[in-house]
Design a protein that fits this description.
The complex is a heterodimer of chains A (about 170) and B (about 120).
Chain A (H helix, E strand, L loop, with lengths): L6 E5 L2 E7 L2 H12 L9 E4 L2 E7 L2 E7 L3 H11 L6 E4 L4 E7 L3 H8 L12 E6 L2 E8 L2 E7 L3 H11 L10
Antiparallel strand pairs in A: 1-7, 2-5, 2-6, 3-4, 4-5, 7-10, 8-9, 9-10
Chain B lengths: L2 E3 L6 E3 L4 E5 L11 H9 L7 E7 L7 E7 L5 E6 L7 H10 L21
Chain lengths: ~170, ~120
């Protein structure tokens, strides 16, 4: 029996903080508070163990170890004091999955209507996986997929199904 | 399959990642307007065979609304532009004219119609 296309793991130590602000005005303050530079559009800046992802023209997502979340929320809230901005701990609202292995891309190619082969190493792509919204970035030899916690069983089923042994997209 | 490039994030998204929002550039007629204007604002929509301007939302992406110019018959996309524009931008008009020389804009340009005059 052939191996699965990729190892699907649920990432449990991933904290996420949603930041909504006018990035042109508050970018420097956010970068200083996060310790990570502001990413360009549809990109992310990784500075282990944190990464700052560009979500939309007025939204960023700071991904960091779960233990650092409360401290980072306080720092960001203080940095954005007095501005029209939002800093929210969304760790419990989201699920993250690791998709590792040489054929990890094929697992996502089956689920997402996005050209992930062309996504740069520092790319952050928001798209959908089958019927639900998700975000994808590259990590190691695979990808990390984030989605909403309420649909995490669905996502896990999708990913495991798409990674089933013998279902690779290359010609046999 | 319709593929549009979101002007807000630059992602080229296909139809299932987008949400349609109907006709673009509607002018609102609210309280104080005549019944005829109000009814037209609510219900009268263009249904052209050819060049059409539409609102789309990048729902499975940056979440922003934007506008697109496309041909309803051939599905050819002439371009996408930000929703803050009160009329299609000169670039969009030029792009349509290049493909459809007979096409005429059905709006009149006003001096304040450039995108720069509006805050985003």
């Amino acid at each position: 029996m052939a191996e699965a296309l990729a190892r699907i793991t649920k990432l449990t130590d991933l904290g996420m903080i949603q930041i909504r602000a006018d990035l042109a005005a508050a970018g420097d303050a956010i970068a200083a508070a996060c310790g990570v530079a502001i990413p360009a559009a549809t990109a992310m800046v990784a500075k282990a163990p944190r990464r700052l992802c560009w979500m939309s023209p007025d939204e960023l997502l700071l991904v960091l170890p779960l233990a650092e979340v409360p401290e980072a929320v306080v720092a960001l809230t203080a940095a954005l004091e007095g501005q029209h901005a939002l800093v929210l701990d969304v760790s419990d609202m989201r699920s993250a999955f690791g998709i590792e292995g040489a054929k990890a891309e094929q697992v996502l190619m089956k689920l997402c209507p996005a050209d992930l082969a062309k996504m740069p190493a520092d790319g952050m792509r928001r798209t959908r996986a089958a019927q639900v919204a998700c975000g994808v970035w590259r990590q190691g030899d695979g990808f990390v997929l984030i989605g909403f916690r309420s649909v995490s069983d669905y996502l896990l089923g999708l990913l495991n199904g798409a990674a089933q042994a013998g279902t690779q997209l290359d010609p046999r | 399959m319709l593929t549009l490039t979101c002007p807000c994030c630059g992602i080229t998204a296909e139809e299932t990642e987008l949400h349609p929002g109907g006709e673009a550039h509607l002018k609102r007629f609210g309280p104080g307007s005549s019944d005829g204007d109000f009814e037209a604002y609510l219900f009268a929509r263009k249904n052209p065979k050819g060049v059409h301007f539409e609102r789309w939302r990048h729902a499975y992406g940056c979440g922003k609304w934007f506008l697109a110019a496309r041909d309803t018959v051939t599905l050819e996309v002439f371009g996408t532009y930000k929703a803050q524009n009160p009329h299609p931008t000169p670039e969009i008009v030029a792009s349509i004219r290049a493909k459809r020389p007979d096409w005429q804009p059905d709006w009149t340009e006003t001096k304040t119609s450039s995108a720069e005059s509006l805050t985003e």
